[in-house]
Structures are given as structure tokens and as C-alpha cells.
Amino acid sequence: MIGFIGLSHLGLNYSLATAAKGFDVIGYDPDAALVERLKAGLFPIDEPGFLDLYAKNRGRIRYSANPSDLNGCELVFFALDVRTNERNESDLAPLTALIDSTAPSFAPNSTVVVMSQVKPGYMRQLTERLGVAPHSWFYQVETLIFGAAVQRAMEPERFIVGAADPALPLPASLRAWQASFACPVLPMRYESAELAKIAINFYLVSTVCTTNTLAEVCESIGADWFEIAPALRLDRRIGPHAYLKPGLGIAGGNLERDLVTVKALSAEHATESGIVDAWLHNSAHAKSWAVRLLEREILQHTQKPKIALWGLAYKQDTHSIKNSASVELVRALATCSFEAYDPAANLAGQDLPNLTLCKDMWAALPGADVLVIMTPWSIFSSADPTRIRELLKGTLVIDPYGCLKTRASQAAGLRHLQIGRPQG
């Protein structure tokens, strides 16, 4: 039996993936109401493929709010999502409390793995504080992506495993679980594994910021970034899988959390981290791309314009609005009224008096001076430009991710602006 503790996004996806690999799984969470909903097949996440995978493997997974049910688990994972505050700082208190409340329930020979992202130094301090045998406690770096979590959990690129002593062999129960996923396993010391996740995100951030910087240059000089990107993918030093699609800065919270973490470490240990400030500045500039266009193309000519807004989530296939460029757009243009539609975004607790939610994407268009498509949901890509032109009062479509095809939009009488393409 394998246990997963903390049934948020990470725990739900990896516990189900583990059941799909043929293991018997118990998912534990102290929230009894949540557990009852899970038992009824009602999940607080919306991930492509999740419900189908659950239907096929529900016989191998059960959910519990009783910590004593963990006693029979040979292998236990802590998989609680670590939240960030408004400054993108991690709040590790809920994870630590969960560990403290459940660790006494483990069998003496249990192997324990922390999947939740923690800051460097956490695991060694944790095992010393708990007084547990460090050779039975491990840290495994996970990089689930909202909107692709099921695929990432089922087909991981590698397992990065932090250990008190990486020279010792991993326990048999952990090795058996890892083997079922058939991916490379990289053991290393606790601190290296904790920093490895941050390192991965740093390299991603550097690519995002470089791409956005050059895409903006393209808009001004008549170059087309999408003609340039294939040349970069053919360069062996960059590669075919490089993140070369321009966008609206860094969103979602996890990347900025890692930048904030390293800034704090740098301040504590007197190392240089000026590049982090540059990345954060670049991200803020990229996130305001649509604001700048609206100010130039609409606000200079129209007082209190009505804006049709498609997409509020920070990315497609997720309900999260953490650091959403779309929400920041609504807040930045407080004098404008927005008619908005998103298939899944959760706006609970948001104070957005100038935003009205619509029942579907077409209901947002009548009378609008401009359409802004801020989240590249597939439903927006299938929209007919001719119908958009018929319903829209104006002719401008601001479409940073290129959901609509430029030529089809122009043929329908629309002016279509996208990041990285000429704006003449």
C-alpha cells in the first residue's frame, strides 16, 4: 500500500497516477468534507484526462481522513501544494503541520518522500527536528504543469531524489515505485535536490524573458518572431524543445516563487542576484503588453471604452488566476468596462467592479470597442473571425498568443495584433 498525504493538485494527480501504475493507494487529507467529496467522485481540480483515468483505476485508490489508515503503508508521499502569498513567498507552515500531525501514524519501516516544493535546507532541518532516521526520508522534485498534470504525472521526464546520503541505495519500496514510471532517477543530497527544482525554473525563466524581449523588438522593426524561432530550435546549444513562444511574462506563482526564494538566499549569504531583478522587471513589462496596446490604440481615442475579454485564467486548461495578466489588465484599466468569458477561471474573492462575466464568449462581443484574448483556450482558436466582426463594434483584436489566424482575421475585416509579429 502506498500513501499520499495532502490531496490538493499535486497529491490528487500523483496518487491517481500511482494507482494507474498498478499500486494500491490510500489518499489522506485532514479535511473530512473534502474526503467525502472525493469518495463521491467530485474533485476540486479540472485537468484533461483526470476523470477518465480515475474511472479506469478507482478500484485501486481510496480516500481517508483517518491518519491511522496510513499505518499499513510501506511508502508514503507528502504531496500538499505549497501556496504563495502576494509577494510570491512560500508558506510552508501547512506542510510542516501536516507532517507533524501524521508522522506518528507511520509504520516503523515506512519510507517517506516529500514531494511538495520546499526551500533549500528544509529537509535536513526537518529530519533533525523530528529525530527520524534520515536514510528513510527523501525529497523528490516534481514539476507538474497546470493543464498537463495527468500527462506529466504518468510520463515524468526524470525523478530527482534528495537524500541525506545519496551514496546509499534507495529503499526497495521507493525503487519499485520509481521503476513503474520507467524514467531516469537522479539521487543527490537534500540541498541539491531542493535547489534543482529552482534551477529548472530559472533556466525556463531566462528563456521566457529572452523570447519576450526579442519578440517585442520584432513588433517594432517589421520582423516576425515566428520566422526566427525555427532557426533557434535547430541550434544544438538551444534545441528543439526550447520554450520560444512569446507571452505575457511569468504567471501562476511557481516561477516567481523561485525567483523570490533565491533573492532571499542571496541576501542571506551575500551572493549576487541582479539577474533575478532583471527577470522580474522583464516579466512585469511583458505582462503589461496588452495594457500598452489598449492605451495606444483605444484609450487615446475613446473615453470609457467597452472591452470584450476572452480568458481570465493565467493559462489555458486551468481555473487558477494566480498572477494572471488578464486580471491585472482589468485592474490596470479601472476606467474601462470589461465583458469577460472564461471556461473555468475561479474569481472567488476578487474585487473587480469593472468586470462583468458573460455566459459564453459571444455574449461579450456586442457593443465592444475591442476584443482582447488573454488566455489561449482551444475554444477561442475555433472562433469564426467573420462572426466576431459582425458582433464587435470596433475592428481591433488584441491576441497576444495568436489564437486566431491573422490572415483569416484580416479577411474578415479585423485588425489582428499578436506578440512578436509586425504591428504596422
Helix/sheet category:
alpha/beta
How does the overall form come out from the CA principal axes? globular
Rg (C-alpha, Å):
24 Å
Amount of beta strand = 5-15%
Annotation field: number of helices: 16
What's the β-strand tally? 14
What count of domains describes the coordinates? 3
Q: Give the full name of the CATH homologous superfamily of the largest domain.
A: NAD(P)-binding Rossmann-like Domain
As laid out across the biggest beta sheet, the strand order is: 3-2-1-4-5-6-7-8
CATH topology of the largest domain: Rossmann fold
Overall mean pLDDT score?
A: 92
Question: H/E element string?
Answer: EHEHHEEHEHEHEHEHHHHHEHEEEHHEHE
Secondary-structure map with pairings?
Blueprint: E1 2-5, H1 9-20, E2 25-28, H2 32-39, H3 50-57, E3 61-64, E4 75-78, H4 93-102, E5 111-114, H5 122-130, E6 137-141, H6 149-154, E7 159-163, H7 172-179, E8 185-189, H8 190-221, H9 225-233, H10 254-269, H11 274-287, H12 289-299, E9 306-310, H13 325-332, E10 337-341, E11 355-357, E12 370-373, H14 378-381, H15 385-391, E13 396-398, H16 406-411, E14 415-417
Parallel strand pairs: 1-2, 1-4, 2-3, 4-5, 5-6, 7-8, 9-10, 9-12, 10-11, 12-13, 13-14
Antiparallel strand pairs: 6-7
Summarize the structure in words:
With 424 residues, this protein is α/β, with parallel strands linked by helices. The chain folds into three domains: 188 residues, NAD(P)-binding Rossmann-like Domain (Rossmann fold), CATH 3.40.50; 88 residues, Orthogonal Bundle (N-(1-d-carboxylethyl)-l-norvaline Dehydrogenase, domain 2), CATH 1.10.1040; 130 residues, Rossmann fold, CATH 3.40.50.720. The protein has 16 helices and 14 strands. It has an eight-stranded mixed beta sheet, sandwiched between helices. It has a six-stranded parallel beta sheet with strand order 11-10-9-12-13-14. Strand 1, helix 1 and strand 2 form a beta-alpha-beta unit. Helix 8 packs across helix 10 and helix 8 packs across helix 11. The longest helix has 32 residues. The radius of gyration is 24 Å and the shape is globular. It starts with a strand and ends in a 7-residue tail after the last strand. 42% of the residues are buried. The mean pLDDT is 92.
